[in-house]
From TrEMBL:
It comes from Ceuthmochares aereus. It is found in: Lipid droplet. This is PLIN3 protein. Pfam families: Perilipin. One of its GO terms (biological process) is lipid storage. Belongs to the perilipin family. Keywords: Lipid droplet.
Length: 156
């Protein structure tokens, strides 16, 4: 899911020849059908509009990742510090990606190194989240199962 905008941007930056435009358009339609509420209407989209929509999609996805990661950061308190650090590092990375996509007005504003690094960073975040899930699968915190403990009030 997160990798799709990066693929679109990389394909688009390679040039505007017909074959690449067709591939980008097909990727966009596939994504639209899968993830949009309308299910994709199949209408023809101009390259400039596709570029703008791909950047908007990247911004929205990184924004959603940022919101989700913030919730995870607060939820992992009490877990080993190594896991907490990886989740915090993931949040920082997502914030950087969101800032890069938000600042871009066109694909030309995104360097190839930003796109390459973004792929690597997203893969690392995925690895960290899988590690967190593996840990939780084997070591579920008691407070997550039964809730926080509080003293009972005595009825007189």
């Amino acid at each position: 899911l997160c990798d799709l905008p990066l693929q679109q941007i990389e394909v688009f930056k390679q040039g505007f020849n017909q074959k690449l435009q067709e591939k980008l358009h097909q990727m966009w339609l596939d994504w639209s059908r899968k993830f949009s509420e309308e299910g994709g209407d199949g209408r023809s989209t101009e390259p400039e509009e596709m570029e703008s929509l791909a950047l908007l999609m990247a911004c929205r996805i990184t924004q959603q990742l940022q919101i989700t990661c913030c919730k995870i950061v607060s939820a992992v308190r009490g877990l080993p510090s190594s896991l907490q650090d990886k989740v915090k590092q993931s949040l920082s990375t997502i914030e950087e990606l969101h800032a890069a996509f938000s600042a871009a007005n066109s694909f030309q504003d995104l360097s190839s190194s930003v796109l390459t690094q973004s792929r690597r960073k997203l893969a690392l975040i995925q690895e960290y989240m899988e590690e967190l899930l593996d840990y939780l699968k084997n070591n579920t915190p008691l407070s997550w199962l039964v809730g926080p403990f509080s003293p009972r009030e005595e009825v007189v």
